[in-house]
Structure formats: structure tokens, C-alpha cells
Amino acid sequence: MAGIKSKYKKILLKLSGEALAGGQGFGIDAKIVQKTAREIKEVIALGARLGIVIGGGNIFRGVAASARGMDRIQADYLGMLATLFNAVAIKEALKKEKVQAQVLSALPVQGLTEPYVPQSAKAMIEKGTVLLLAAGTGNPFFTTDTAAALRASELGVEVILKATQVDGVFDQDPKLHPRAKIYKEISYAQFLQDHLRVMDATAVSLARENNIPIIVFNGRIKGNLKKIVLGFPIGTLIKG
Asked: How far apart (Å, rounded) are the C-alpha atoms in residues 222 and 135?
């Protein structure tokens, strides 16, 4: 891709587990995983360095299980393990695309992942390895959004890209309110003050403390990820 340069050189991408389920709504859709891998490959081809935090809601959602009577701590640990399924699936899809990737987990599983160590992770990402950062923060009560903001801070990335199923941040839930208005740009303070829920408040607060902008965008639209990395104004920018 000679002559084409990315605006962002080091990125933390937050993907939802639900996105990998495709139309089936549960589990892992191999076609969606491979599509995701191809889009990641396009970004790497631009020279960007990439870390990815992925949720596990397509396999297990801790909060929902807790609401049904399961112990919250145990439910959250099962949710962390669910993210490992997704991370390994994406790693194998990237392998087919000839993209070097490594799963690093806050809950290491011998033979499947390596433990997440910030300094080692920074060295890997600088060399161009795509990092699949699994098991959230490794602690219950924290969402994978918060894990994304934490890993972004530790790795020193320039931006957090949060892929969702809507076009950005709206003043109301666009699925319930057809006339909801999208923000092209919003401050961290307003996002938190208005209790907007497209991203966890703890994650946004952590990004604000470390001055890392967040771009919320529709991850279902092919090409959006690449356009953002190139600097196109896609989605909603959250910054100071």
C-alpha cells in the first residue's frame, strides 16, 4: 500500500463478542471471524500496530448469569474464559491471512495462551504482532470495555476504537428512539454526565485520565475500520 499512510500508528481495537456470532446470535460464526481477520489485515498493511480486546458475550455473559442467581465472581470468571474462545478464533483466522498474532491473557492457559505482561506486550506490538488481549483485566466486576482502556493505557496507544452495532454515540438509544441524534464529537465529561451507555463509564474515565481519544463506530459496515485508521471522520469521537 505504497503512498497510503495511516493516521494512527498504534491502536487498541475493542470488539464485542456478539459481533462474532453473526446472524445465529450465539457462538462463533467462522465467516464473520474470517471477515474480521481480513479487515485487521488491511489495517496492518497500512503500517499500524494493533492490540485487540474482545468481549465474550456471544458465549457467556457474566452479568446476565449473575442476575439469574449465579455468584457474580464465578460468573465473571466464566465470562473471562469466554473471551479466550474468541481471541483464539481470531488468532487462527489471522494465521490463515498470514498475519502474525499472539493471544495474551490475564488468565493464562498453558498451551493455549501466554500471560499478559505489559513490557513484553509493548515489545511485541512494536514489532508488528497483533495482540489478542483476552480475559479482560483478570479481575471480576470489570467489563471488557474497562480492560480495553486499561490495556490502551499500558501499551501507550494513540486511540481506542470501539466497534459497535450502531453508527456512533447517540443522545438516546437509536434502537428504541428512531429520531435519536448522533454526536460527531463529544467530550469525556459530557459523555459521563449524560450517562451514555454505549461504553462503560469506568472505561471512559480511564481514557480521560490518560488522554486517549475514543472513536465509537459501526463495526458491521465493511471498510469502516480501515477508513478510521486512514483518518476519515467515521462514527463519534470522544475526547477532552
From this structure: 27
